Amino acid sequence: MIDPLLLTTAAVSTFNGTQGLTNATGFFFERGRRLFFITSRHVVIDEPSGHRPDRIEIEIHIDLNNLAKSTQFSIPLYRDSKALWRQGVDAAGQIDVAVIEIDRKALPKSPAIRAFTPKQLVDPGKHVVIGTDLVVVGFPLGFHDTLHHLPVARQAGLASSFGLRFQGHGYFLTDARTHRGTSGAPVVMRVEKGWAAKDLPWALLGVHSSRLDVSRDLKLDEALGLNCAWYADILLTLTEG
Predict the structure, then answer these.
(1) What are phi and psi of 65, to 5 degrees?
(2) Which of 207, 186, 204, 203 lies closest to 137, judged by CA?
(3) Which residues lie below 8 Å from residue 239, measured CB to CB, with a gap of 6+?
(4) What pLDDT was estimated at residue 197?
């Protein structure tokens, strides 16, 4: 009875040792037999703010018939002082996406998770109509269904031309109300049967990064309500090899 989209996404907590730092969002991506966890790069490291966790924890369901059952799964970010995540760079600089491979053998027995696959990635060359209805699935300010450990979905609209790098950067814009904690959330749209997996009929367009704003009069002008979403096709590059 549950939409499988909700099982693609997990709450993220960052830690430095035992000290809790921040909360965010991430999702699962499967390529062949390999399983990856995707989030924003600034969740695992953010040089300007000095944010440098050494591990993250994600919440995983362990019983599909009883979603109240879940467990925390710890993922180290470093081994021998070397980063275990992968990140991308393009002509405009750092891409705010991080990919961490998960050892399936380390997962709880029969984890109740779903993962996007390369088949569900939307090529930037594909025409997506401006204003198209999108969904951002995540944990805004950490808010979620605490009984069933499920994220919430926020409605969004495509706010810039899909496939066109906004201001030369590798992202497009969404029009949505978002909050801290949503970083790393999948940005998806519902698709017709046959285009994506029949049991997960959602196409993955991007990875939500942050809100975008301009200099404005804080008393007279409201926030733009626009957000950056990095094109999801970067996942093909970051999961190669």
Answers:
(1) -85, -10
(2) 186
(3) 29, 31, 34, 36, 86, 99, 101
(4) 61
Per-position DSSP letters for 40-102, written without gaps between them: -HHHH-BGGGTB--SEEEEEEE--TT-TT-EEEEEEESEETTEE-SEEEEETTEEEEEEEEEE
Domain residues for 41? 4-238
Q: What is the pLDDT of residue 194?
A: 58
Count of structural domains within the chain: 1
Q: Which residue has the higher pLDDT, 128 or 92?
A: 128
Strand partners, 229: 172, 208
Count of C-beta atoms within a 10 Å radius of residue 142: 15
Predicted structure pTM score: 0.93
* Residue 155 tokens, joined: 């409605």
SS3 222: coil
CA 29, CA 113: separation in Å to the nearest integer? 10
The mean pLDDT of 110-132, rounded to a whole number, is 91
* Residue 106 φ then ψ, to 5°: -85, -10
Check residue 42 and report its DSSP letter: H
β 19-31/9-16 pair status: antiparallel
| 239, amino acid identity | T
What mean pLDDT do residues 112-118 have?
94
Q: How many CA atoms lie within 13 A of 236 on its CB side?
A: 13
* Residue 29 predicted with pLDDT over 90: yes
Q: What is the CATH number of the domain that holds 188?
A: 2.40.10.120
pLDDT by residue (tens digit) across 125-152? 888 999 999 999 999 999 899 899 999 9
